[in-house]
Design goal:
The protein is an alpha+beta fold and 116 residues long. It is 23% helix and 31% strand. The strands form two sheets. The chain has a five-stranded antiparallel β-sheet with strand order 4-3-2-1-5. It has a two-stranded antiparallel ribbon with strand order 6-7.
C-alpha cells in the first residue's frame, strides 16, 4: 500500500470560510424612513425667514417665507398677497429667492447675497 499523506486545512482557512458564509447570508440594511434632512432644511429657512420661491407642478412660482410645515403641507407667508397653505404633493421644487437661473439654466447666486 502506498503512503498517503493526510491534508488538513488550516484553522485560518476554516475561519475565512465561515465569515464568507455569514457575509453572503447577511442582508442589506433598509435605509431609514426619516433622514431629518427635510426637517433641518425647513427649520433653517424658517429661523432665517429666508425669502423662497416655490415652483408648483403646474408651473406657477410662488414667492414668500415659510412660516411652518407638517408632514403633508407648508404655510407660506406673502407680503402683498394672501398667505397660502400648499400641499407638498403639488410642489415641484423650491429654492431661495436670491438664487437665480443663468442663461445655461443652472442655478447660481447673485453676488454678495449668498448666505453661509
Amino acid at each position: 500500500m502506498a503512503n498517503r499523506k493526510l491534508i488538513r486545512p488550516s484553522l485560518t482557512d476554516l475561519r475565512d470560510q465561515e465569515q464568507s458564509k455569514y457575509a453572503r447570508t447577511q442582508r442589506k440594511r433598509v435605509p431609514p424612513e426619516q433622514t431629518s434632512a427635510e426637517e433641518y432644511y425647513y427649520l433653517k429657512q424658517m429661523a432665517n425667514k429666508t425669502p423662497m420661491v416655490i415652483c408648483l407642478i403646474d408651473g406657477e412660482a410662488l414667492h414668500g417665507v415659510i412660516e411652518w410645515y407638517d408632514k403633508r403641507c407648508i404655510k407660506v407667508n406673502r407680503e402683498t398677497e394672501p398667505n397660502l397653505l400648499i400641499p407638498k404633493r403639488s410642489i415641484k421644487y423650491m429654492y431661495k429667492e436670491f438664487e437665480a437661473k443663468d442663461s445655461d439654466g443652472e442655478i447660481g447666486f447673485f453676488p454678495g447675497e449668498r448666505d453661509n
